[in-house]
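Pipeline run #58 for the internal structure catalog. This entry was flagged by the ingest filter as a single-chain record with no existing model, so it goes straight to prediction. Upstream metadata was stripped on purpose; only the residue string is passed forward. Reviewer on rotation: M.T. Logging verbosity set to normal.
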Amino acid sequence: MPIAVSQLTSQGWQSLTGGGSMEPASTLLVGAASYHAPLTSKRSWTEVLEPQVGPMTIRRSYESEATGIPTSWAVSEASIDVAKYASVHSVRPPIDQFISGAHDARLRTFLRSIPDDGMPKFLVGWHEADSKVRRGNYTRAQYMTAIRRFADIVHNEQIPNTYVTPCWTAWLWHDPAKGAGQPEQWWQDSVYDVLSVDYYDDTPSAMFDPVVIYAAAHGVPWAVAETGWTSQTVKAQRITDTATYCATHAAGGWPSAAFMCWFDSDVGFDEAVAAQAFTPTSSPAAITAANAACQKYYRNPTTLTLRR
């Protein structure tokens, strides 16, 4: 997939992907998913996370299973991103109903409501699908059928700056024998625009090397949809190291990960370690490291364009 990336500089628009004298640069967008109970995810972002850690350029959000596909972008969990942040937004309609076509019209209505604000929208259908297959929520065959239908509709609608971005867990590469199948069994041509992954509590190389190799082999950019660490002794350094890793590992013509999002939330963690699980707002050192990463890799999201 060819990529055209440019950035607005003091000298005007300049290419970051070849040509002229400029060397290719990181185009990494840095952000997070945020939930600090009892606040909603939107209030958590605006009242807790962004004021301490920003400036961030991308926000991770999720629709509930009950909502599935929102009736419009304006009422979605991503609504506060408009004209401010790029979005990594998960939707999850009932997969058997979606395969039947029952949600086609709803998806098209949702896509047509996306504002033309210049911000990239990375749409995730059924995030962490490989873990759901392991649990028996649905089969890999169902997911493969559903995500292709999802991608066909998104691509057909041709909404500017809107990309199909599956999010799998890195367990698909690290432990593929446990029910989800081998990574190659999850690949489909002409479906995925950016490949994203969730993984936690390890070094960036251990977490993401197989993902980068896989994305590069298939010619698509890669991204981190969720990552974090529970150990306070390593967290700040891991925040720094992972941002550096994401900024310097290319795939699919993109000179870095397309985006990296922390999981600044205790959702999904054992209550005994919940106080440690907030990444990066769980300690002054983590906040400092994350703020430095946000500033170092700050990019105006509207200057980044991915060409299918």
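catalog note: Confidence is low (pLDDT under 50) at residues 1-24.
catalog note: The domain at 23-305 is CATH 3.20.20.80 (TIM Barrel).
status: ready for reviewer M.T.
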